[in-house]
Amino acid sequence: MKFSITKDKLVENVNHIMKAVSSKTTIPILTGIKITASHDGITLTGSNSDISIKSFIPLEENDKEYATIEKNGSIVLQARVFSDIVKKLPSEFVNIEVDSRLMTRITSGSSEFNLNGLDAEEYPRLPLIEEGNVLHVRTDLLKHVIRQTGFAVSTSETRPVLTGVNWNIQNGNLSCVATDSHRLASRTISIDADENAEYKNIVIPGKSLNELSKILDDSSGEWVEIVITESQILFKAKHLQFYSRLLDGNYPDTDRLIPAESKTDIVLSTKALLQAIDRASLLAKEERNNVVKFRTLSNEVEISSQSAELGRVFENVDIQSLEGEELKISFSAKYMIDALSRIDSQDIRISFTGAMRPFLIRPVEDEGILMLILPVRTY
Amino acid sequence: MKFSITKDKLVENVNHIMKAVSSKTTIPILTGIKITASHDGITLTGSNSDISIKSFIPLEENDKEYATIEKNGSIVLQARVFSDIVKKLPSEFVNIEVDSRLMTRITSGSSEFNLNGLDAEEYPRLPLIEEGNVLHVRTDLLKHVIRQTGFAVSTSETRPVLTGVNWNIQNGNLSCVATDSHRLASRTISIDADENAEYKNIVIPGKSLNELSKILDDSSGEWVEIVITESQILFKAKHLQFYSRLLDGNYPDTDRLIPAESKTDIVLSTKALLQAIDRASLLAKEERNNVVKFRTLSNEVEISSQSAELGRVFENVDIQSLEGEELKISFSAKYMIDALSRIDSQDIRISFTGAMRPFLIRPVEDEGILMLILPVRTY
Question: Per the database record, which ranges form the DNA polymerase III beta sliding clamp N-terminal domain (chains A, B) (predicted)?
Fold first, then answer.
């Protein structure tokens, strides 16, 4: 293998791949990054037990030349060191050449690295995915959906299936739900898919979605193609393929958790409430549970918390409307901050069905988003 | 005590004070910040066993009004929480009022905090410093000197005196030296001081100087006043007083470490050498000692390193002149990077007296700076 490539393009793509490379792996070759030079460009591959990422650098694009191949081939190089090296190389161009003993010579300006390569034949194959049904989602919308649901997955391995986000696709809708059994986040969007496309109980690890979101570029109105199989999901963006394994097990039925009726409905500013709870939590944090109290007054709500050691805080937030009964309730400030900070709409509606029942937070304008939080008993 | 103050000014000054506040302290009241309102402004004080910082906010300055005092007084509030609170307050203004039971009411917009205060009488007094001889140093110059010497202090408590920077003042010169016994950094500057001012064996903790440097503002050509006593040093900038304790013990005589003659003298670009060593260290880091090899060639020097596992690297840097013998030497890449990254001049002269003797790095233009590194035996 022998090629030269522009440093910036190489660095950018190595950064993507590094999202899938773990230094802690039971398969030593997976601490490496696989580099393949072929007639049309350079492919980089990284993988861990959950995620695999493949990134492609074309020889040229939009009249810019990125790479010149002198000889096709493949090599696996230690990922962390390779990534550090390419970032620091002195020249705008990098030459990479592999000899018959897999010694890989990387030169750039007056710098010369000779790295011990590993045989690319020993690198595990990526899952073979039959592209039957392909779903299409706008990249920026997919990133929003991930941000608005992924935060609510469980971080505990007690019920592994809850560490994932549950996707259901039916009638041209994608519905995503995550819950850690104390709170829930869900969003439904319409997607571009075959009418008959129907997938149930797809559970994608929250970590995979998080890493995917980091490397998807939503600046240019691109679309992501999604292919789902029994055990894998593949996201295809321009020059990028992102594979994640799916979680085993049945995701619980979350519909029954969502109260159908409400006794108190409040409409108020998302930002004002978020900031008030953020401040109130400063004293709540010092206590064990980070719980704040919330009660309705005539034209406002009062959020308060106290710490025996530090003192008390009272925050008042104006409300736009209050329907139904007066209410006193307590909840985790963290869960509320998590939910509110994922809602981009100016105003939200909170629907309560009593101090001990889960309550719902929805943007006033968009019913596709629903957040649910279980209260804490303190009053 | 009762006053109101602009939020931005309060946040800025609390941030300064926080540099002196430690959450780990054997004196509980020192986890607090002392706030004093008097006729001319607000004073904030923070302290730990090494550093005390006093910051003053005048009622007004440059036609800007910062604070209004309704009632003089003092209080001590838990520093971490107070700092978090003021940063997040909703309005441009903050009102602070202390009642007779030391309950401190902080209001801003619709936010109200009631913090348990501590009696300011119980807060330790800052050291009393007689202002006899006062030295004057330009703020930006003082920050440079700290950056160019402080990095070389020892981080080990085996010889506590080496964790400080040794200052000597004589004949209008301030000479600063730090060494951890493997490398040394020194800088001498001329300062504005009384002719007879003479101080020897002043050892200031490296950490103190580091924190001082962070809060000194060098944007407007200000000067720092320095007062030195038996056990304390006081730095006075505009509205800011920074006290540090001095270290006990005799600082070793470092002059005898510095070779008077040299056998090989090289002049080359600071940045080119720094970057080459930075890259060469990528493979050296993986080994135990982070050592790179350095040898002179006809018109260049070669820096190399190797790791059995990863491979080898060769870097070549052009030199502007070479006087004396050819040389092969090995040294810690980290020490070299530390030294080179503190030299702002374009070119440096490195003077060697053989492969097993300490070598000197000096800027070509400015002889006030001197860095010394002990080599490592590998050739």
Answer: 1-127
